[in-house]
């Protein structure tokens, strides 16, 4: 294995995710495909704890990679497509678990603008060790925004699914274009989001 690839894998081992994402992912798989498939991907991924995740725990991001890759092998669907579907599901679940995040704003764009300024601050109160992505929003009138997503985890497909889930919640359908931006301060993904007719 080339040194660069080994370094990326070693760095990924130190990146962590909150257990609520793992528990919701396994619930998503069970609900869509059955609990047997959820058990199968846990076995296929050979995760160290045998899939015994708790919502308040913190786990290596590489375990989520392994679970999603195992699901991709089982279903034949590409990993990004699965992450987008899961992101939509996760947004719906967060609207149930944390309704206060979704009732403060009345529109999709206002909600997305509140992610860094309000929601992530509140999430840190619940989970002080959470490693959260950064979202920067630029408005272009009332119908279009750019949302820049920066994270130590390459989960832009999950973020895109969550944006669609939020659009569903606010009943404001959108069209999304995605661009990876190489920047001296570090790469990020720009979502250009427009209200759909």
**Largest sheet, spatial ordering of strands:** 3-4-6-5
Query: Tell me about the biggest sheet?
Result: 4 strands, antiparallel
Q: Name the poorly predicted regions.
A: 1-14
What class, by secondary structure content?
alpha+beta
Considering DSSP H and I runs of 4 or more, what fraction of the residues is helical?
55-70%
Question: What is the CA-based Rg, rounded?
Answer: 17 Å
Q: What's the average pLDDT?
A: 87
- Structure annotation, total helices: 8
Order of SSEs? HEHHEHHHHEEHEE
Total number of beta strands:
6
Report how far the terminal alpha carbons are from each other: 48 Å
In terms of DSSP E residues, the strand content is 15-25%
Question: Could you explain the architecture of this structure?
Answer:
The chain is α+β, with helices and mostly antiparallel strands. The chain is 56% helix and 18% strand. The protein has eight helices and six strands; from the N terminus they run H-E-H-H-E-H-H-H-H-E-E-H-E-E. Strands 3-4-6-5 form a four-stranded antiparallel sheet, with helices on one face. It has a two-stranded antiparallel ribbon with strand order 1-2. It starts with a helix and ends with a strand. Mean pLDDT is 87; it is low at 1-14.
Q: What can be said about this structure in brief?
A:
The protein has 197 residues and is an alpha+beta fold. It is 56% helix and 18% strand.
Keywords:
single chain; 197 residues; alpha+beta; four-stranded antiparallel β-sheet; two-stranded antiparallel ribbon; 6 strands; globular
Topology summary:
Layout: H1 3-14, E1 16-18, H2 19-33, H3 35-45, E2 58-60, H4 61-75, H5 79-97, H6 99-103, H7 108-126, E3 134-140, E4 144-150, H8 156-169, E5 174-181, E6 188-195
Antiparallel strand pairs: 1-2, 3-4, 4-6, 5-6
